[in-house]
Amino acid sequence: MSRRLAFTKMHGAGNDFVVLDGIREALPPLEPLARRLADRHFGIGFDQLLVVRPSRAADFRMEIYNADGSQVEMCANGIRCFFQYLRENGHTEAEELRVETLSGVVVPRWAGPGRVTVDMGPPILAPAKIPTRLGDAAGPGPVLDVPFRVDGRMHWVSSVSMGNPHCVVYVERVADAPVATLGPRIESHDAFPNRVNVEFVEVVSRSHVRQRTWERGAGETLACGSGACAVVVASILRGATDARVRVELRGGDLDVSWAGGGASVYMTGPAVTVFTGTIELSEGS
Fold first, then answer.
1. 201: exposed, middle or buried (C-beta count within 10 Å: 0-12, 13-18, 19+)?
2. Domain extents for the chain?
């Protein structure tokens, strides 16, 4: 016995998602389903699976699953698509919403056709809360340009949480960065007990950086919104950029700003519906 499950394929600056509606559909167990749907040859293909749920703490709840089935706290490109999905599919006409995530309540708002601004909240800089064992784990942070040895080679890295952990590595040319080799080694290093997203960054000017990201449980993606926010925070704290920065990603650009201190980080970027469809679910899948 089988049934058809409706889905929507979306992307934010090339970071791609499948959205499932857990309000209108009865969903099967999501970890195995995420692994199946993520397969780009035998499934649909995505970087993350986004699930719409009702919330008692906010207007809606967003669940996020990586391609390997692991559940994660937050995805900034994802929440823009999530907000766009809710508006396009009749869940809301609001221009601003409160969305519950594992990292807390995040506030996206409409910024014009196909664009969404997200109030990401203040960055988390305390090592114990990122979490990371780099720097002084008992201190307040920030973790900036800390020596970090991986496979016998020394790197200098910074670390920020935007509701999910990030490790920022500055390079001369991001096109030449060892994303596929160093990225997974840092992701699973015991300096990061919850694993970590790894950003490789080239500073072009005080208002422009280039970024590539190795994401936890997904590998290299075309964009990472929370990573872009973490990069801008680290770059401002290092004195490398001003408060408003265009982040150039392989899949498109994001605009990120931070006033410093306990202020929120704001990110604006695209949210695009690619196609909709259904996939057959067999009994027990």
1. buried
2. 2-119+271-282, 127-263
Q: Which string of b and e fits 52-77 if b means at least 16 CB within 10 Å?
A: beeeeebbbbbbbbbbebeebbbbbb
> Which tokens belong to 191?
């300096």
Q: How many helices (H) and strands (E) does the chain have?
A: 4, 18
Residue 285 has pLDDT above 80, yes or no: no
Which of these is catalytic: 81, 167, 224, 229? 224
pLDDT given at position 3: 87
| 81 flagged as catalytic | no
Q: Domain 2-119+271-282: what homologous superfamily?
A: Diaminopimelate Epimerase; Chain A, domain 1 (3.10.310.10)
Catalytic annotation present for 75? yes
Q: How far apart are CA 210 and CA 174, in angstroms?
A: 7
Separation CA 137–CA 243 (nearest Å): 27
Q: How far is 120 from 205, CA to CA, in rounded Å?
A: 24
Cβ-contact 226, 164 below 8 angstroms:
yes
User: Considering 75, 81, 167, 229, which one is annotated as catalytic?
Assistant: 75
Alpha helix segments (H runs only) across the chain: 30-38, 76-88, 179-187, 225-237
Query: Per CATH, which fold does 127-263 belong to?
Result: Diaminopimelate Epimerase; Chain A, domain 1 (3.10.310)
| Per-residue tokens: 279 | 């996939």
> pLDDT band at residue 283, thresholds of 50, 70 and 90?
low
Same fold? 2-119+271-282, 127-263 = yes
**Residues comprising the chain, all counted:** 285
